[in-house]
Here is the input.
Amino acid sequence: MTAPSAATEVSATRFDPRKARADFPAIHQEVHGRPLAYLDSAASTLKPQVVINEVADVYSRDSANIHRAVHLLSQRATARYEEAREKVRSFLNAERKSEVIFTRGTTESVNLVAQSWARTFLHQGDEVVLTELEHHSNIVPWQIVCEQTGAELVVVPMTDRGEVTVDAFAECLTPRTRIAAMAHVSNALGTVLPVEEMTRLAHERGAVVLLDGAQAVAHVPVDVQALDCDFYAFSGHKLYGPTGVGVLYGRERLLEGMPPYQGGGDMILSVTFAETLYNDLPYKFEAGTPNIAGAIGLGAAIDYFTSFDVDAVHAHEHELLKRATRALESVDGLQILGTAPGKVAAISFLMDQAHPHDIGTIVDAEGVAIRTGHHCAQPVMEHFDVAATARASFGIYNTQDDIDALVGAIARVKELFG
Amino acid sequence: MDLRELYQEVILDHGKNPRNHRFPDPHNREGKGYNPLCGDRITLRLRLAGDRIEDVGFVGQGCAISQASASTMTEAIKGKTIEEAEALFAKFHAMVMGEEGADDDFGSLGKLAVFAGVREFPMRVKCATLGWHTMNSALEDDGSEATTE
Here is the structure.
């Protein structure tokens, strides 16, 4: 094992991953007779006990619908749901609670903007700017709305290091650009995009900006007012929260002018067959009974995450990324895809000796959980002319031991396939 | 979990050096196969003489399991009738899916029996059947792409 560097020792005084590990029950198990090394947080993070308890507690005590009945259980459920909204507002530093909409996840958040904002305001020949490194969930909704409106997709190319430069983005903006939708952090490569500068440039052209924050929220600071973005989307389960719940932040002025995304209960003020009056923000966009326990669980996840010195958590993850990168770079025949400076929390790689799927199966047998495949980012795969990669990604609970386990498991791949 | 059960020598060998990794010339049937889980694609062509598979080959890239499976398949079906090839796929499928009663039949699968270990790896069944689905598509040859879904 490598001796801890000075940098880790500094961060270790502010953040101790071993303490965080104790909070995650799923990490303390054996997989195929080996201790689990969970390196797939970019796909979904594990959940701390406090989040699991919170969700169980909602169903155990306050199992009622919200915004409906006058009975006590409904009042308590409503209060907790709205407290969770306030926690999200504070986490994103949004100006108003009414700008925080609960959704099923990032995918639904992007679809909401595509179908409500874009479908209403885009016209033939308008342009939607995306980048080459987007996740499918920030591509397909725009393809659908382009089909519906006659607008066109413009794709900002990335470099061979997996970067999207401000210059490349600026070149794609035209007077016809109506919206730019891009990842804050790339899920396949870990690249952090220069979204502040990109947003400024898009706004200069009068375009609206949506940021896909699914991979960002756990790994970089997010402040929607500082970013000045118009929409910000993320998922609870990538921030140590439950699956099936996510968030769309939207600038109030824009949300006000948008038609509802879905019709149903809770999003109305009054309904007659002649006319329906829509509810105020954010309820206008929350049709039907939402994932109440999920939203409250997400609130608990935010409480949990922010109970740490978040900068120290990020520094710890960065140190792990540096060490893992160094360790993997020294493996003969292994190539890392995505080498953008300042990247976070994920390493995509290929091996001469074995296909990513074989790597995934072999390291799994050693107790190491990584993702293999196209990571729902096939344009990225196409850029590098591969069908798939293996990806190791980090979270708050990972330690040097996990990197050692990965390196050991990769040695096993070479042994079998060498 | 014993990885050697999955990655047997025959599989590693065929994965590295797939046989019939070229197109028969001439050919009269073509199938394309795609595994949306991993993005792997293969193209398989064969020459039918009546209902007999005179020659068969494939190109494409993928994991050791999918390449080895397609490779051993081409060896197994060359010279067989369509009916025999389809019967072989049915047996192979039952084996990798771990279907009940499949156990007794491995002997008749010959070399293909090395894929029995795939039963223990449900996430890899689609890798092992990609070539076979593509064969079906080639035999039907209606121009559509076979997927493992």
